């Protein structure tokens, strides 16, 4: 409204300065120019705006409303009828100390959630158009969306999975869900953190007992596999040894045995022998 009044006053001053009553026409004299220059400069000041660093400018016009084309940081030009609103694009943070989540098996889990986000520069007009300021979005919308995203994912898992082996999977799905929800609002999700999840002492004990039982099963399975492997190794070794013996047996002839005996014999006759009728016929062994 102030800008409109200023424009109207400038036009009025220009008319009074330039209008010649005697000639009944507009006449541009040097005096008129010097009078009009300050007013024109003042009017042009409404056409230049500075968008601070780490901000995005939102153009609003009394004639066309909110523009979807945003202004980058730095100097920008506008019409005197436009108003520019700045929204920060730095990373913002919202912590929800207690979020209640219901699981697939109708159990309730509480958690602390931290959301880091920033306004998308191209879609910042959505934030202004729907919430006017970033604080409104931060205080009301972020927490609601975070709880809805996590709750939507958690209802697909039982409580033991939520607090146990499926925890990382739930984090990933919750992040994707929240990111999609915030994108529709002109906001980018930087990081979602879920911590201090708690379902009560009874559930925690059940999870601990299940972990111990699972570890025992895994240990028993490992022992079974090891025993099976050892047995298979023994069978393979036995088969290999039997096969080796067969091959060796085929190769051991009488001649080879005598050669091996003679190779190890030191040439001395035995000191103890049988009666005179007992003789060893080596020639028979050489055949």
Give an account of the 3D structure.
The chain crosses the membrane at residues 32-51. Keywords: Membrane, Transmembrane, Transmembrane helix. This is HflK protein. By secondary structure, this protein is of the alpha+beta class. Among the domains are: 2-88, no CATH class; 92-199, Tetrahydropterin Synthase, Chain A, CATH 3.30.479. Helices cover 52% and strands 22% of the residues. The strands form four sheets. Strands 5-4-7 form a three-stranded antiparallel beta sheet. It has a three-stranded antiparallel beta sheet with strand order 8-9-10, with helices on one face. Strand 4 (55-61) and strand 5 (65-66) form a beta hairpin. The longest helix has 51 residues, at 201-251. The chain starts with a helix and ends with a helix.
Please mark out the parts with pLDDT under 50 across 5 or more consecutive residues, or reply none.
Answer: none
Q: In total, how many beta strands?
A: 10
Q: Describe the strand arrangement of the main beta sheet, using strand numbers.
A: 5-4-7
Euclidean distance between termini CA atoms? 131 Å
CATH class of one domain: Alpha Beta
Number of helices: 9
CATH topology of one domain: Tetrahydropterin Synthase, Chain A
Chain-averaged pLDDT: 78
- Share in helix: 40-55%
Please state the overall shape, judged from the principal axes of the Cα atoms: elongated
State the order of secondary-structure elements, H for helix, E for strand.
HEEHEEEEEEEHHHHEHHH
In CATH, the architecture of one domain is: 2-Layer Sandwich
CATH superfamily of one domain: Band 7 domain
Computed structural class: alpha+beta
CA gyration radius, whole angstroms: 47 Å
Largest sheet report: 3 strands, antiparallel
User: Strand share of the residues?
Assistant: 15-25%
Protein name: HflK protein
Keywords: Membrane, Transmembrane, Transmembrane helix
InterPro entries: Band_7, Band_7/SPFH_dom_sf
């Amino acid at each position: 409204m102030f800008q409109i009044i200023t424009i109207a006053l400038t036009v009025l001053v220009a008319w009074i300065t330039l209008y010649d009553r005697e000639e009944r026409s507009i006449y541009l004299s040097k005096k008129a120019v010097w009078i009009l220059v300050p007013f024109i400069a003042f009017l042009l000041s409404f056409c230049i705006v500075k968008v601070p660093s780490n901000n995005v400018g939102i153009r609003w016009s009394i004639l066309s409303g909110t523009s979807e084309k945003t202004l980058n940081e730095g100097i920008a030009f506008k019409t005197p009828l436009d108003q520019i609103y700045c929204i920060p694009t730095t990373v913002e943070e919202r912590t929800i100390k207690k979020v209640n989540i219901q699981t697939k098996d109708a159990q309730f889990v509480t958690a602390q959630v931290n959301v880091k986000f920033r306004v998308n520069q191209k879609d910042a007009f959505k934030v202004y158009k729907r919430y006017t300021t970033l604080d409104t979005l931060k205080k009301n919308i972020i927490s609601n969306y975070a709880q809805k995203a996590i709750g939507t994912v958690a209802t697909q898992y039982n409580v033991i999975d939520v607090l146990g082996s499926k925890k990382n999977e739930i984090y990933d799905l919750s992040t994707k869900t929240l990111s999609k929800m915030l994108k529709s609002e002109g906001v980018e999700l930087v990081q979602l953190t879920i911590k201090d999840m708690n379902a009560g002492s009874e559930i925690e004990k059940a999870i601990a007992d299940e972990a111990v039982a699972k570890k025992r099963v895994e240990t028993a399975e490992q022992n079974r596999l090891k025993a099976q492997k050892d047995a298979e190794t023994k069978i393979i070794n036995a088969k290999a040894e039997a096969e080796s013996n067969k091959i060796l047996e085929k190769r051991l002839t009488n001649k080879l045995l005598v050669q091996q005996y003679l190779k190890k014999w030191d040439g001395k006759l035995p000191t103890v022998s049988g009666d005179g009728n007992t003789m060893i016929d080596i020639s028979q062994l050489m055949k």
